[in-house]
Amino acid sequence: MRFTKMEGLGNDYIYLNCMGWEPSDLPELAVRLSDRHFGVGSDGLICIKPGRNGDFTMEMYNADGSRGAMCGNGIRCLGKYVYDRGLTRKTCLTIDTDAGPRGLELQVAGGKVERVTVDMGEPALFPGVTLEAEGERFDAVQVSMGNPHAVIFCRDPEQVELERLGPELERHPGLRERSNVEFAALNGPDSLAVRVWERGSGITLACGTGACAVFAAARKLGLCGSAANLRLPGGTLGLEERDGRVFMTGPARTVFEGETED
Predict the structure, then answer these.
(1) 18 an active-site residue?
(2) Which of 92, 154, 213, 229 is the most exposed place for a label (fewest CB within 10 A)?
(3) φ, ψ of residue 180 in degrees (nearest 5)
């Protein structure tokens, strides 16, 4: 079975071309391949399938085998995959996801995709909640970008003990559902610093939907304008609001290709 490992700001996924076939038990395969000691190593598995209504379908699994509805960094890499490998010559694509269709604008240089802009859709914002975890209290803004997020603004995300707090906050009964968790801080005019605990994967270097959720929460609280840069440990994403929809721009890179024995 051939695979391709790709990353967007260090948020890495294993890609399978499932246009004409599909391996069995994808959740188990995601767990096995994502293991960083006994597998390929990744934040999850993404299968590229024929489009239901759009050009292609993205089926995404987290590192623990749970199904993910949407992945911002993953969908940018999917756009690079299908263009660089000649599965399409279009630079404007519609990708079907479990969270609905998403539009991609591919930025090509030298015959290869370097950056991708994604129409991430309209965020859904819910009433804020106060959460208690590990003896501390946190005010969280709940946002859905097709998947659930709890955004917590703080003084310095780097000082947050994310490995300790993340598991409890992810499954906190005060949240609408099991959620991704973002700690964010204003880092300057229209600039935010963010760290992410990704449900099903743990600490990741970046999260595209998480960046969009932070941007939407910051807009709600009046912390930034209609465009902002979000700095994550893996790099920076550009976010922009157009007619109530969030557009995300960032890089996509192929790490390597390989083949498993089964």
Answers:
(1) no
(2) 92
(3) -75, 150
